[in-house]
Amino acid sequence: MSEDLHDLYQAIILDHNKRPRNYGPLPSATHHAEGYNPLCGDQIEVFLEIQDEAVVAIRFESASCAICKASASMMTESIAGKRLQVIESISAEADRILKTDTKVDIEAVGEMAALAGVRQFPARIKCAMLPWKTYQAAIEGRAKVEER
C-alpha cells in the first residue's frame, strides 16, 4: 500500500472515531445485539429498526478502540436504508476487505476501503469485524456475540 493511501485510510478511520456517525441509542429498535471481544475489551451495541426487509434506521454505542468504533460508524453509513438482501453483499465485501489481500476499489466501496489499512495489523482485524458480527447477530435474533 502506498504511503499516500495509508495516510488517507488512517485519516478516514480517525475521522469516524472522533465523529462517529449514527452513534447513540435507537428507541424504535426492532432488533438489538451486544458484541464483546474479551481479548481486547471492545464492547458494542447495535440497534436496528427493520421494516419490510429493509434497515430503516441503525445506530450503535460502544466502549471500544478507534478501529472498532470507526468500523461501526462506516457500517451504519453503508447499510442504512438498504434492503437486507443488499446488506448481505455489503457485509461480505467488508469481510473481503478485512481478510484478503486483494485490491480495494475506493470508488465502489467508498470510505469502507479504509478498512483495508487494518490488514497491516492482523490482531486488530477482529476489532473491525466486531460491529459487523454484532449486526448479523441482531438480524438473526441473537442477543449477544463474542469475538475471539
Describe this structure in words.
There is one protein chain. The protein has 148 residues and is α+β, with helices and mostly antiparallel strands. It has a single domain, classed as Alpha-Beta Complex (Sufe protein. Chain: A), CATH 3.90.1010.10. The chain is 45% helix and 19% strand. It is built from five helices and four strands; from the N terminus they run H-E-E-E-H-H-H-H-E. The longest helix has 16 residues, at 3-18.
CATH class: Alpha Beta
Percent of residues in beta strands: 15-25%
Distance separating the two termini: 27 Å
Q: Which architecture would the CATH scheme give at its second level?
A: Alpha-Beta Complex
The oligomerization state is: single chain
Number of strands: 4
Low-confidence segments, given as residue ranges, are: none
Q: Cα-atom Rg, whole angstroms?
A: 14 Å
Report the total helices.
5
Structural class: alpha+beta
Task: Kindly identify the CATH topology.
Answer: Sufe protein. Chain: A
Topology:
Layout lengths: L2 H16 L12 E6 L6 E9 L2 E10 L2 H14 L4 H16 L6 H4 L15 H16 L3 E3 L2
Parallel strand pairs: 1-4
Antiparallel strand pairs: 1-2, 2-3
Helix pairs in contact: 1-2, 2-5, 3-5
List the main descriptive attributes of the protein structure presented here.
alpha+beta, four-stranded mixed beta sheet, 45% helix, Sufe protein. Chain: A, single chain, 5 helices
